[in-house]
Each structure stands twice: as C-alpha cells, then as structure tokens.
Backbone:
C-alpha cells in the first residue's frame, strides 16, 4: 500500500465524506441520492464545508448531482466555494457544448489518470484545508492506495435495500480508529481516522 506524503500539503486531511443508509448504501437504485435530503439539508453542517478547501469527486457523482440540481434547483446547495475536481475516464471535449444538466462551471476541473496524481492536484488546490472525497469509485481508489486520513459518515435512519454500497467489492481490510460520534436531529455523525 502506498502511503501519501504530507510534503507541501499543509495541515489539511484527505477525508472521505459519505451519507449512508443504515443498511450500508450511499446511493439508492439508479444511483439516486435525493433520499439523503429527506433527513439532512445540504447546508446543515457548515463547519464541515468551512474546513474543506477542495473536493475530488467521481464523474457519476458529478452527473447525479447535476441532474438533482436540474430537477430541483437549490437541492444540492452546499456552502462550499472552493475548486471541485472530477476524476473521469470521459472528460467533456473542449469544443463540446455542455449538456443542459451539465452547465459549464469554471470552478470544476476534469482530471484523468492516476488517483495519486489527482489527490495531489486537489490537495494542492485546497490551500492547507481538507480535501473532501465524494463518490464510491474515487473513495475506493483512495482507500486502496492509502491516501485517506479520515472517513466522515452521516448515518441516516432509512433502509434502502439496494443501491451503491459504502465500500466497493474487493476492498481489503482497513482498520479505523473512532474519533467522534455525535447526533444532529435524526442523523448520527461518525468520524474515523484511518490507521496507517
């Protein structure tokens, strides 16, 4: 397992951030995530957003969030204004006009290639704050490579029965150290440090 280097990274951590159903799903069937907002508002935890300097997300998460925003404007408003990096095998073509559900956003940069390089690029842009990782595939890649410092999970009181699991199949055992456990309304918030 490759260990990440803190050289030039400031004090920020690499944090996998997930909302999860009690039965372990981070997205429902068809990659739906709108059920999350039945239990928590996008701006409910401003201190998390304030500690975040950049985000690295997967293309599927990016596309689903754009569809949710197009269907219900304001539904995915997160009080974060830093750069967003989308790791993808299919970046939009420069001459290709954005799809209606995918408006051009100057704060979004599409990256391809190695997960380690993507994390380094996004951490550099985070300006010493945390790098938030969103998306099942990107988080799994980061965990496999030993690039994650912490995992933040919002456990929601719902059983989805099917969907995208918290961790991808084939992920080897990773030991975690509990950091905190709190509640906010119906949401249980768990924070773990990844033991390296």
Residues:
């Amino acid at each position: 397992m490759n260990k990440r280097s803190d050289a030039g990274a400031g004090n920020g951590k690499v944090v996998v951030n997930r909302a999860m159903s009690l039965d372990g799903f981070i997205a429902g069937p068809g990659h739906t995530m709108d059920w999350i907002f039945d239990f928590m508002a996008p701006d409910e935890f401003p201190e998390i957003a304030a500690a975040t300097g950049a985000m690295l997300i997967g293309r599927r998460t990016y596309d689903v969030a754009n569809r949710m925003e197009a269907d219900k404007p304001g539904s995915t408003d997160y009080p974060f204004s830093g750069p967003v990096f989308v790791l993808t095998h299919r970046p939009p073509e420069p001459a290709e006009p954005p799809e209606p559900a995918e408006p051009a956003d100057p704060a979004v940069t599409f990256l391809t290639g190695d997960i380690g390089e993507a994390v380094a690029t996004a951490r550099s842009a985070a300006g010493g704050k945390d790098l938030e990782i969103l998306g099942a595939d990107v988080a799994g890649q980061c965990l496999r490579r030993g690039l994650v410092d912490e995992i933040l999970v919002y456990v929601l009181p719902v059983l989805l029965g099917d969907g995208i699991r918290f961790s991808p199949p084939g992920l080897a055992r990773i030991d975690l150290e509990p950091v905190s456990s709190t509640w906010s309304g119906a949401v249980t918030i768990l924070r773990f440090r990844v033991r390296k």
Notes: Residues 97 and 104 are 8 Å apart (CA to CA). The beta strands are 14-21, 25-27, 52-58, 84-87, 108-111, 130-134, 150-156, 164-165, 176-184, 187-194. The longest strand covers residues 176-184.
